[in-house]
Amino acid sequence: MSAKPFILGLTGSIGMGKSAVAAMLRGLGVPVFDADAAVHELQGPGGACIEPIERAFPGTTGPDGVDRQKLGAAVFGNPEKLKLLEAIVHPEVAEMRRAFLADNANAPLIVFDIPLLYEKTGQHGLDAVVVVSAPAAMQRERVLARPGMTPEKFEKILALQVPDAEKRARADHVIDTGVSLAETRHAVQALVHAITAGLPPK
After folding, report:
1. How far apart are CA 71 and CA 135, in angstroms?
2. pTM of the predicted model as reported, rounded to 2 decimal places
């Protein structure tokens, strides 16, 4: 029986550079499961969640999949409806995650990219967590540069997220993206090497 892959959770608040770190990990040949991308696929054209979402929330889907604005409006401020939506989506994401695990069973290290790890999903099933972090001023500058973003929206998003300092304190590893890209890449490589070097041979 070969050893199981080491499962690393990757998370970080908005604008911290998590996507960039995920891309660096992929570049090093580490399989990365992207929870957000899985949801987009499930809610996209022909996705497995389209029919049940349309049944539960009539008029919120179309030929292009889920109309995110209409669905957002249907569940906004209504915990019961949000629970209903999560009950449709979460089991499907879990199924995709199981398939991903099976496909990569021989990899020494795999990464689960989970934006709301500390807010929602928790650390269940993970061997360690890495938090991507940057100074608050840099985070603010990055987020406000996004199309359609306003200071008010940014503050609302921040209010829903576990504070960065708390995430860093709870994490097993922290990757700093407030430095040069080369330094961040070096830190990612060092982390991958440290984890895979500590694993039993397959």
Report:
1. 34
2. 0.84
**Is residue 199 very low, low, confident or very high in pLDDT (cuts 50, 70, 90)?**
low
* Number of C-beta neighbours around residue 167 at 10 A: 22
Say which DSSP state 163 is in: P
- What are the C-alpha distances in Å from 97 to residues 7, 78, 81, 91? 12, 28, 24, 10
What pLDDT was estimated at residue 201? 55
Q: What is the separation of C-alpha 159 from the centre of its chain, rounded to a whole number of angstroms?
A: 18
31, 25 contact by CB (below 8 A): no
C-beta separation of 53 from 43 below 8 A: yes
CA distances (Å), 8 to each of 32, 36, 104, 197, in order? 9, 16, 13, 14
Q: List pLDDT tens digits, range 114-170.
A: 888 888 766 778 999 999 999 999 999 999 999 988 998 898 888 888 899 999 999
What domains sit in the chain, N to C, each tagged with a CATH number? 1-31+109-202 (3.40.50.300), 44-103 (no CATH)
Integer Cα distance of 152 and 162 in angstroms: 18
